[in-house]
Amino acid sequence: MQMIESSESAGSGALSYRAGVAVAVVTSLLTVWTSIVRDDGSGMGFFLVIMAAMVGGFAAWFRAAGMAWTMVGVAAMQTSLSIATATAPVVARVPDASFRALLFGGVFSALWLVSAALFHAASKRRAA
Fold first, then answer.
1. Is 19:96 a contact under the CB 8 Å cutoff?
2. Model-level pTM?
């Protein structure tokens, strides 16, 4: 009976981990797609956010607890970059550009945080 319970919790931890990876990959792909569609010259910073996620994953050896912290850091980086973009002088010339930059950053930061929560859940289930 004990083995069944531990294998069930390990399975749900693996499911949470896979879901965290899926959310991170989808967020990365959406970031690339929206950067290409906008084509306003600010895409390089958003590609660096994706690079930070990859480098952080390698640094954490793709373990769930390290990936959770990595995704929190990436969300903070996304938020900072969005605020910097929204307050840039060039953006002031375009109507609603600041609002759109903040909205874009907020949605993507939330996605990174969802990924972090899933990795955190996976790390708790594996530890138990």
1. no
2. 0.86
